[in-house]
Amino acid sequence: MSELQRLLGERLNGDESAVVHDHGRWYGTADIRADIASVQQALREARILPGERVVLALPNSYEYIVAYLAALLHGAVVLPVNPRMPLPELARVLERAQPAGAWVAPDVWTGVAPFVGETSLRFAGELACQAGGRMAVTGVQGLSGRRLEPADLAVNPVAADDAAVLLFTSGTTGTPKGVALSHRQVLATANNVARSHLLTPADVTYCFLPLFHINAQVVALLSTLITGGRLVVEEKFSASRFWPTILEHGVTWVSAVPTVIAILIKAPDEPVVSKTLRFVRSASAPLPALHAHRFEARFGVPVIESYGLTEAASQVCVNPLPPGKRKIGSVGLPCGVELRVVDEAGEVLPAGEIGEIQIRGESVIRRYAYGDDNGSSFVDGWFRTGDLGYADDEGYVYITGRSKEMINRAGQKISPREVEEVIGRHAAVRSAAVIGLPHEVYGEQVVAYVIPEDDRWKTDASFDEAALKAELKALCLNNLSAYKCPAEFYFVEELPVGPTGKIQRTRLRQQVLASATSAR
Length: 520
Prior knowledge:
Layout: H1 3-12, E1 20-22, E2 25-27, H2 29-45, E3 53-57, H3 62-74, E4 77-80, H4 87-97, E5 101-104, E6 123-129, E7 135-141, E8 163-169, E9 177-182, H5 183-196, E10 204-207, H6 214-226, E11 230-233, H7 239-249, E12 253-256, H8 258-266, E13 279-282, H9 289-299, E14 303-309, E15 314-318, E16 333-334, E17 338-342, E18 355-360, E19 378-379, E20 382-391, E21 397-402, E22 407-409, E23 412-414, H10 416-423, E24 429-439, E25 443-452, H11 465-479, E26 488-491, H12 505-518
Parallel strand pairs: 1-11, 3-4, 3-5, 5-6, 10-11, 10-12, 12-13, 13-14, 25-26
Antiparallel strand pairs: 1-2, 6-7, 8-9, 14-15, 15-16, 17-18, 18-20, 19-20, 20-21, 22-23, 24-25
Helix pairs in contact: 2-3, 5-6, 8-9
């Protein structure tokens, strides 16, 4: 069996009474074993084989963790998706990934049943933890619906290089790339996180970042389990519950994003800060240095900035914990990977010079499972991140921008083209360009610039701009996850294009920012 399976099985076969906190109670290893066995029994009834893909469309919860661990131990490949994903977007995922089954949240996907039988899905089931604490496995379609008696916790051994997780990361071309992470790769990063954060069985992790992202899965969940710690899980971040939860459960560290840090800084009330809290980790998007300074000054808790990628099973760089040397504004030192900065010719640059960041290592994929047919993201064993930055003379890495046109909204990566294609479906739209503009809380927000098909919008006062914008907003919300939908729509006469007629999003963004600056 893989080392990841062995370590998880070893942890779950212990006798701890408190491992995961959710639904207002702690679940111990005995609870988790029994509930994993129930889920595995359902997988066996559905004839899910090792190596087949199982969708997890569940909110952060004890149920999610049980399903995730059950799939890994069963040898299945976990395919996590946003449980609020609109059906058209879900259909595209199912078409690409061809999963064999799915666990869905009750009442989230009322229309999921039609997908069973019409796609590769052989079953879709619901998981719910009942009042007595026992997991209920309910067949939506494809399962018998009978009460399943759990068998013993079982492990279907797989190789270290077999896939553990499959995720889709949007590309700037609009075609999402499939990232298949092996058992070896996710364990390598979990071990790197554990070492860099000095995790021990005494640690209590607070997880509210979405578990359908690699950050929460590896940085919070797996690193905690393999080191014997405990996990407090919440469906989403709550500013009012943040400090009381840390105090109540003796939380020792938190995995957060810059948006959370910005919200906490702005909160008017002075909280009671638990002395157990060792640090708050920031990842998924650039952290403004001013926010880091203000957070530490107000709460007396160190902020540990880091840098990660789905293609590396999350963490790539991280700042040392106190009393180690931290550099605010830097994402820290490479951790468990090799990192280099190169120029356009691929030549390694000296310290201080900006270029493209490339990485390689045990946790880094060697190829995409989908969406990169020409292999241009890899060169001589190095993964081209598309991020721009530099390393100083002590090796600390600084991210200065992105060579790609990806939008980063609070750590959520958004492909402009995917949004543009949806907007372009409206008959009243001639052309559209989507860019990310700076936002105080989210880092960037999605904004759409649209050329209407009807030129009357420029001269006719009766043209209802508000109505068309509302229709475009509704179109996006019906076809895209909410975070991908533009916060604003602007009508324009023209968009910047290159010699071949291709819209130049970077140039548009520069024009908008320059106009905003000159208007001040």
